[in-house]
Design goal:
about 260 residues, binds adenosine-5'-diphosphate, binds magnesium ion
Length: about 260
């Protein structure tokens, strides 16, 4: 229970939000109780599970400022077992508002610890913004582990070394339990030679950290958010959905094997 995972990569458009939503949905379909924390001011995860902008007054921003009455910030989605704490653009001002707070890196951890005590969720997935800013640091401090989506394209591996360094720094200083749970290759195109090369390199450098399951580039995945649905619900049998369900099963197996789940 209460396994907290940050879905993280400082690059935008690599599949963080898509992976958060669809893994969340796949875990929920397997009977796990799941909470998604939308920690990106763009609020794409909130949109992607069908929570409209005008339904987000009780956003994660407000919770990070007020830090009590946790329950009123949880929204149920149309998907059974899947809840979310939403984000809106207010969140972009958060960093400056807490600039004077010496313990700001621990604000989200405080909230996560309270959620852990309540023991309502099997897994909590944090959809991180595309930066290594305070929001991301807070997510890393609050998490048991991270999953890194990596777009299979030429520059994918460059940012990864820096990201892993940051994760390691947080592990050494602020959160000893933090682990890299896995790296997931996204937007894979099997007709593209470069994709195969990037896959090979990633597996060579990061070995078992890279999940076997590849997420294909799939048009249905990109259509789904405009319908406010995870692709797994929008088109259950498309290649993208099948891949995310397979990945979810692989993640759960690996969690058992390495005892990631806290
Ligand atoms: N496997 C995929 N195939 C096709 N489009 C995808 C895939 N994964 C993500 N996308 C699309 O790419 C864009 C960026 O993905 P997103 O998950 O929002 O990235 P991030 O959260 O890292 O910025 C979105 O429009 C999304 O719908
Ligand atoms: Mg995103």
């Amino acid at each position: 229970m209460n396994h907290v995972i940050s879905v993280i990569n400082q690059k935008g458009g690599v599949g963080k939000t898509t992976s958060t939503i669809n893994l969340g949905c796949a875990f929920a379909n397997l009977g796990q109780k799941i909470l998604i924390i939308d920690l990106d001011p763009q609020g794409n995860a909130s949109t992607g599970v069908g929570i409209e902008n005008n339904e987000r007054e009780n956003s994660i921003y407000k919770l990070l400022i007020e830090r009590n009455n946790l329950q009123q910030y949880v929204k149920h989605t149309k998907i059974e077992n899947l809840d979310i704490m939403c984000a809106n653009v207010e969140l972009s001002g958060f960093e400056t508002e807490v600039a004077e707070d010496k313990n700001r890196a621990f604000i989200l951890k405080g909230i996560m610890d309270e959620l852990r005590q309540k023991n309502q969720y099997n897994q909590i997935l944090i959809d991180c913004p595309p930066s290594l800013s305070l929001l991301t640091v807070m997510a890393l401090v609050a998490s048991n582990s991270v999953i890194v989506p990596l777009q299979t394209e030429f520059f994918a591996l460059e940012g990864l070394t820096q990201l892993l360094k940051t994760i390691n720094r947080i592990k050494m200083s602020l959160n000893k339990m933090l682990e890299v749970e896995g790296i997931v290759l996204t937007m894979f195109d099997k007709r593209n030679k470069l994709c195969a090369q990037v896959e090979q390199e990633a597996r060579k450098f990061f070995g078992e950290q890279v999940y076997e399951t590849l997420i294909p580039r799939n048009i249905r995945i990109s259509e789904a958010p405009s319908h406010g649905l995870p692709v797994i619900v929008y088109d259950k049998y498309c290649a993208g959905s099948i891949a995310y369900e397979k990945l979810a099963a692989e993640i759960i197996e690996k969690q058992k094997k390495f005892n990631f789940a806290a």
